[in-house]
Write a structure and sequence with these properties.
The complex is a heterodimer. Chain A is mainly alpha-helical. Chain A is built from five helices and no strands. Chain B starts with a strand and ends with a strand. Chain B has a single domain, classed as lambda repressor-like DNA-binding domains (434 Repressor (Amino-terminal Domain)). The chains are: A mainly alpha, B mainly alpha.
């Protein structure tokens, strides 16, 4: 079990590291995209792009959506970093410590922010009738199923957070018995 | 209320906290918590080791005061 744990933790840390690199890469890409939009560096092709998002101002809508997507990516980066911290602690057999509870709480808040930004984008794209923007995060293709899944994940994180909080109390109680 | 008289017994046996902690295999910090009545409880295992090292009975260390 110990060996299995070590292998699982090592693979998880590696995957999270790769995921973080990809997220940072996307952040840079979106930042470049936003700069191009804001400073109208791509004026010639703007009319071509705006066919996809008909009757809208590509500069304003595009910038708002890019900012929201970047914020969503930030929340994913925060979630990944906190998972990495928890795995690091679990690998060192520090199970019920305050840092783990704080990390899970941060994951919970980040995930709430992620859902919030996703909801704002979907509402914004629906109001402005923006379609065919991107497959990423199902933007422009909002579905109630996604939010049900998000809600289940949110509840799971909350339950784990409570288990850890209770675990810390039990651990402290056990530590005070000599 | 339960009181720990460990320091009295240790004084009688002329043993220091450092030495006792080393012999029973707990940290000096934990022994200090026990001596100062700050511990929530004591394990039978620890109590047995203390009694063995100090050559006494649990009643000599633990007393109930009203």
């Amino acid at each position: 079990m110990n060996t299995l744990n070590k292998i699982v933790f090592r693979i998880a840390r590696l995957l999270i590291q790769v995921f973080l690199i990809i997220m940072y890469f996307f952040e840079v890409i979106f930042l470049i995209g936003m700069i191009i939009l804001l400073f109208h560096l791509d004026n010639d092709n703007a009319s071509t792009y705006s066919r996809g998002i008909a009757n809208t101002n590509i500069y304003v809508n595009g910038s708002i959506i890019i900012i929201l997507i970047m914020l969503m990516l930030v929340t994913l980066i925060l979630i990944s970093k906190n998972i990495k911290k928890i795995i690091y602690n679990l690998d060192r057999k520090n199970y019920f410590i305050q840092n783990n509870a704080i990390s899970i709480r941060n994951i919970l808040y980040s995930f709430i922010a992620f859902i919030g930004f996703n909801l704002i984008i979907n509402v914004y794209t629906s109001i402005n009738k923006l379609q065919n923007i991107s497959g990423i995060f199902n933007i422009g293709h909002s579905s109630i199923i996604n939010y049900i899944i998000y809600f289940i994940i949110l509840i799971t994180i909350y339950v784990i957070y409570n288990v850890f909080k209770q675990g810390i109390k039990v651990q402290q109680d056990s530590d005070s018995v000599i | 209320m339960i009181e720990i008289n460990l320091d009295v017994v240790m004084l009688k046996r002329h043993i220091s906290s450092k030495e006792l902690a080393k012999r029973i295999g707990i940290t000096q910090a934990n022994l200090s918590i026990l001596k100062n009545n700050k511990a929530k409880g004591i394990r039978f295992n620890t109590l047995e080791k203390i009694c063995k090292e100090l050559n006494c009975n649990p009643g000599d260390i633990i007393k109930r005061i009203s």
